[in-house]
Every structure is written in structure tokens, then in C-alpha cells.
Design brief:
The protein is of the alpha/beta class. It has ten helices and 27 strands. The strands form six sheets. The protein has an eight-stranded parallel β-sheet with strand order 7-4-3-2-1-12-11-8, sandwiched between helices. InterPro entries: FA58C (IPR000421), Galactose-bd-like_sf (IPR008979), GH (IPR017853), Glyco_hydro_29 (IPR000933), Glyco_hydro_29_N (IPR057739).
Length: 639
């Protein structure tokens, strides 16, 4: 009995020593610096990549944004397979999907009780289907996280723009957030009001973007029903938009930000100063990291004429390095065909991208190095933490050491082309900048520099380097807490050239007409085969082109100016043809949806082939505060 008691004392003493040791180390941990992420934001950071899926009646209309007037009878995907779509995303290394349960057209992809315009009115599964459920179950089967986007703008609902619609929208969120399991994302955007069907009224409705949705109270539904879901919008509570639909942030991109309202009004989705969405704010008051959203194709919805414009693996990896590799996340748009599956080229590209990611990160060359540091904080904060693949173990310096370096010495020279760094973001975004040197020809030579390390920072070198010694100099306003160092050698990526369709007419003999002689040279920039130049006018709302002879064509392409401003991009258009330049016939009219955020080549497909010598592209509405402000980078005409 005495022996047993003695054993208990020894065990208890050991436990007390261990606990005291842990407490001492924990006490010696650096204090958090500035804004820090919540638990849900940490889980979002760890997800890194997910896909958003756009599949609604708009797909069957070959449109980018549905007007809200599509007959539900057109929605009948005969080969629908959620597992094929979700499985393809998983093969690409993505860890979650966000399904668009309702887009701006207002068609609910679940049998909602809130509005008649929903999937139960379609012939798919005899009106008994639930596509949100199909994707939720597919995600669960594939071990993927699941999120939902329900558009606040509803171009079908007759109550849109009134207080009654807000109740409808909130009830839709309650249905979605109560019946489809745990969600990792509550996804929203800033699309607000405009032309719509609106129950047959066919009119334009404006809302006060800053107040109509009462976002803080609307998002309270997410917090109550899905407390683990990160809220995304152009400026969400947890995740912000990067400010473009190319998926890429600037070189410097902080996870902290100071929100800026517009004038004296508060910052709210659809109504804010978005000048710092990409860059964030150093020492910003809130931790709201960015999501880089981009579609695998030019548009968010499937269009058969974009089958040859699927992004290449090389393009995807570059986007990855400028989104995930800049401390944010990558949200890639997938676009099922009208049959309800992904086009095979999309599937193949995703699989090749996933294969590349595995190859790139298969072996961390830093694990082969002996790592030393100029300063190490007392406790479990040594350099061994830098290569243990743990985001939250870290090398730390003493409180009064704000500049320090780590050195990697290799037994044999290491060849690498990519450097990866992480901070322990549980302690905030502490590091201001870093410099990377290699020991070459008997002295240290600067190799790379970077700012805004945060959750993940990838530095791609212009070409592979070989070094036996490497040094990373770190600068911060407080003690350093660096979590990981990675050195990788990218495998050669097969470059796939992007080709034109082959159906474009040669433009060398074209001319512009109906414009002042002094403006002709400028107007020709719209047909000079140079995407970087553009025609700009504040006096005309159209451009007339003379082909020199009568030609047959079936489609026309319009590329807005490709600089950083969307000003002057055509939102609503009219396409006219003529054989004498005097009498004009309208052959198409419509809208270029989402062109402000995604200024890509827009294709106007005609209902049937036409024959004409003259073409007029007329802007009925542009992205502009001024009347008649129009900019055209290029016009294409297709046989």
C-alpha cells in the first residue's frame, strides 16, 4: 500500500512538473499583436481552396445573368451528376464547394416554401428534386466542406425592392441554413437591384445598397443557425472580396483592414470604398482576409463557345500563388453543362492541376537543412518548429528582438524555385517584411523580398536557384513568430497556348465611319488586334465599322478596355447592321452581365447568320457617371 502511495506521489509530482513547465512556457509566449482571427476564420484559412458552382436556368439560356423570366420547364438536366462535379473539384485539390442555391434570376434550386419560382416547378425529377441536397450529399460523400450562396438580388420576385422581400430573403436563408447540415461558408455578393422581370412588371428597381438588406441583422441568421460558417461578401464579417474576378491579390495584401464607407455612410456590401479590398490595411482594426474568386472559364455559367477557353494548369497555378500564396483563399468557379455535368476538358484540367500541386509540395527541401537563428525565445520556440508542417508551432524571438534572421545550411546544395513562409496567425500578422539571401561567390546576395506574410506567403523566383547556404532576414514591430519555411522546386509545366477560335474575320481591311476625321485614328484602336489599346469617346454612344464588302457572320465579340478601370464598359447594348450605312436594322440587344467586375470578351451570338457590309455597336448604358462615355478595346466578328 505504501509502494502504491509512493507511485501515486511520483506520478502526481511528474504531472505537476509537466503542468508547471507548460504554464511557464505558455506564460512566456508572445502576446498577440493587433487584430487576430476567430476560430471560424482559422478553419477558413486552413481550407485554402474551394469551388463555387453556378447551375440554374440561366445555363439553359446561354446567358451570364438570367433576367428572371425563364420558364421553369427549361430546367431539366438529363445527365445530372453531382458526384462527377464535386469529385472533379476534389481531384483538383479543392477542399470545399459553395453551391449557388439561388442566383440573381431568383430561381430557387430547392423546394422552398417562400416563393413559387423554384425547382419543384421544373420537370427535373418530376418536380420532386432538390439540387441543394444533391450537392450537399455529394460533398459529404467526397469528404468536402459545403457552403451556400443565395443571391439577395432577385430579378423574378414581384416584391423585390420592398420590405416584404427582405422577409422572404431571410426566410430563404433560414430554410437553407437549417436543412443542409453544417456549412463552412455563408457566401454573398454585392449585386443589388436593376432591370428584372419582377413578376411581369419588367422594370428597373433601385435599392439603397447601404441599408436595404440590413446586413448586420440578416447575417445574424448565419451566426445563429450556422455559427461555424464564415460570412463572405465584398466586405463580409469574416472574409472580404479581393476586388476583382481574376482571383489574384496585389503583391502586398494584409489580412487586416480598415473598412471605408462611401462619404459619410458606413461600409456595407455593395456600398463602400473598395480601394483597399485587395491590399488590406497594415495594422488594420479588423481581421478580414480576402477571397480570390475566378471562374475556370471566362464566364461563371457554361457557354459552349467557351469550351476552348478553359484556363490552363499554368494559369491556375499562377492564380493559386497570388491568392492562397498571398494569405487568402482561392474560390474557383465551375460551370456544369445543360446536361448537368462538367465538360470533359474542365474535368481533365482540374485533375492535372491537383496532380501539379501534389508534385510541387511533395518534398520540402528545407527539411534537409540545419537551421539556426540569431535569437530564440526561451521555451518551445526553436527552429525545429519551422519544418514540422504545423501552422501553429513557431520559432519566436524575445520581446525586445524585432529584427532577426534564420540561416539554412545544406549538406549538399539545394535547388529550388519557390519559397513558402507562414506566420502563426493566432498571434496576429506581425511581420512587416522579409529579405532572402543566398551565399554565392563568397558573400551574401539578395535573392528576394516580400511583405505581408500572414497565413501563407509564396515567393516564386524567376528561375531556379542552387544554394548551399540561405538566410531569411525578418523585420517586425514586435517579437517574431514565424511558423514555417518551405523550399520547393516546381516541375516543368507544359505551356498551352491560348488560340483564337479560328472563326474571326481578319480586320486589316476594315475601317470606321460616322466619326470626325480627327477621331478616326483613335477609333481604329477598336479594330487594331491589340487588346491593350482602346477607343474612348464621350460624344458618341456607338461605333460604326465598314467591312469594305458584304460579309456573312453569326456572332460579334466586344472586349472592354483592359486597364484597371471598368469605366466606359458597355452594360446594355444594341447591335445593328446595314448595307448602305444609312438604313440600320437591329439584329440583337441585351446586357453584358457582370462586366464591371469581370471585363472579359463578351460574345453576342445571333439567332441566325446575317449578311451586311456595316456593323454598329451601340451602348444603351455603360459603367459610367457620365453620359455617352464609351470605351472599346476590340471588336471581333465571327463567321
Amino acid at each position: 500500500m505504501k509502494l502504491f502511495t509512493r507511485q501515486r506521489v511520483l506520478i502526481l509530482s511528474a504531472l505537476l512538473f509537466s503542468t508547471a513547465s507548460y504554464a511557464q512556457n505558455n506564460t512566456n509566449a508572445p502576446l498577440p499583436y493587433g487584430a487576430i482571427p476567430t476560430e471560424r476564420q482559422l478553419k477558413w484559412h486552413e481550407t485554402e481552396m474551394y469551388c463555387i458552382i453556378h447551375f440554374t436556368p440561366t445555363t439553359f439560356q446561354n446567358k451570364e445573368w438570367g433576367y428572371g423570366d425563364a420558364d421553369p420547364s427549361i430546367f431539366n438536366p438529363t445527365k445530372f451528376n453531382a458526384l462527377q462535379i464535386v469529385g472533379a473539384a476534389k481531384s483538383g485539390g479543392f477542399k470545399g464547394i459553395v453551391y449557388v442555391a439561388k442566383h440573381h434570376d431568383g430561381f430557387a434550386l430547392w423546394p422552398t416554401k417562400t416563393a413559387a419560382y423554384n425547382i419543384s416547378e421544373s420537370p427535373w425529377k418530376a418536380g420532386k428534386g432538390d439540387m441543394v441536397r444533391e450537392f450537399q450529399l455529394a460533398a459529404k460523400q467526397e469528404g468536402m466542406k459545403f457552403g451556400i450562396y443565395c443571391s439577395p438580388w432577385d430579378r423574378n420576385n414581384p416584391n423585390y425592392g420592398t420590405p416584404a422581400y427582405l422577409d422572404i430573403y431571410r426566410n430563404q436563408l433560414r430554410e437553407l441554413y437549417s436543412n443542409y447540415g453544417d456549412l463552412f461558408m455563408s457566401w454573398h455578393d454585392g449585386a443589388n437591384g436593376g432591370d428584372g422581370y419582377y413578376g411581369g412588371k419588367k422594370e428597373k428597381r433601385k435599392v439603397d445598397q447601404a441599408t436595404y438588406y440590413d446586413w448586420l441583422n440578416t447575417w445574424a441568421i448565419t451566426r445563429k443557425l450556422q455559427p461555424g460558417a464564415s460570412i463572405f461578401s465584398d466586405i463580409g464579417l469574416d472574409v472580404r472580396w479581393v476586388g476583382n474576378e481574376k482571383g489574384m491579390s496585389p503583391e502586398t495584401s494584409w489580412s487586416t483592414i480598415d473598412l471605408k464607407g462611401n462619404g459619410d455612410r458606413p461600409a456595407m456590401p455593395g456600398f463602400l470604398d473598395d480601394s483597399n479590398l485587395g491590399s488590406g490595411t497594415r495594422n488594420g482594426k479588423q481581421w478580414i482576409p480576402f477571397e480570390g474568386d475566378v471562374s475556370l472559364r471566362p464566364g461563371w455559367f457554361y457557354h459552349a463557345d467557351q469550351n476552348d477557353q478553359v484556363k490552363t494548369v499554368e494559369e491556375l497555378f499562377n492564380i493559386y500563388c497570388h491568392s492562397v500564396g498571398h494569405g487568402g483563399a482561392l474560390d474557383l468557379g465551375l460551370s456544369p453543362t445543360p446536361e448537368g455535368i462538367l465538360y470533359q476538358k474542365d474535368v481533365n484540367t482540374l485533375a492535372e492541376f491537383g496532380k501539379l500541386l501534389k508534385q510541387v509540395f511533395a518534398h520540402n527541401l528545407a527539411t534537409e537543412a540545419k537551421i539556426s537563428a540569431s535569437n530564440i525565445r526561451k521555451g518551445p520556440y526553436g527552429t525545429n518548429n519551422l519544418t514540422d508542417a504545423d501552422r501553429y508551432s513557431y520559432w519566436a524571438t524575445d520581446d525586445n528582438v524585432h529584427q532577426a534572421s534564420v540561416q539554412l545550411d545544406f549538406k549538399k546544395p539545394a535547388r529550388f524555385s519557390m519559397i513558402q513562409l507562414r506566420e502563426n496567425i493566432k498571434l496576429g500578422q506581425r511581420i512587416d517584411s522579409i529579405g532572402v539571401d543566398i551565399f554565392k561567390n563568397g558573400h551574401w546576395t539578395l535573392l528576394a523580398q516580400a511583405t505581408s506574410i500572414g497565413a501563407n506567403r509564396i515567393i516564386r523566383l524567376a528561375h531556379a536557384e542552387t544554394a548551399s547556404k540561405m538566410r531569411i532576414r525578418v523585420y517586425a514591430p514586435v517579437s517574431i513568430a514565424l511558423s514555417e519555411i518551405g523550399l520547393y522546386l516546381e516541375p516543368a509545366i507544359k505551356t498551352t497556348a491560348k488560340l483564337k477560335t479560328g472563326n474571326e474575320y481578319n480586320k486589316t481591311s476594315w475601317s470606321v465611319t460616322g466619326i470626325a476625321q480627327s477621331k478616326i485614328a483613335d477609333a481604329k484602336k477598336a479594330i487594331d488586334n491589340n487588346d491593350t489599346t482602346f477607343f474612348e469617346t464621350k460624344t458618341n454612344n456607338h461605333l460604326d465599322i465598314d467591312f469594305g464588302k458584304q460579309i456573312d457572320f453569326s456572332a460579334v465579340g466586344y472586349l472592354p478596355a483592359q486597364d484597371k478601370s471598368a469605366e466606359g464598359a458597355i452594360e446594355k447594348y444594341e447591335l445593328l447592321i446595314s448595307n448602305d450605312g444609312k438604313k440600320w436594322d437591329v439584329v440583337a440587344e441585351g446586357e453584358f452581365s457582370n462586366i464591371k467586375a469581370n471585363p472579359i470578351l463578351q460574345r453576342i451570338s445571333l439567332t441566325s447568320k446575317v449578311s451586311a457590309r456595316y456593323l454598329r455597336l451601340s451602348a444603351k448604358q455603360t459603367v459610367s457617371k457620365e453620359n455617352n462615355f464609351l470605351r472599346i478595346a476590340e471588336i471581333e466578328v465571327y463567321r
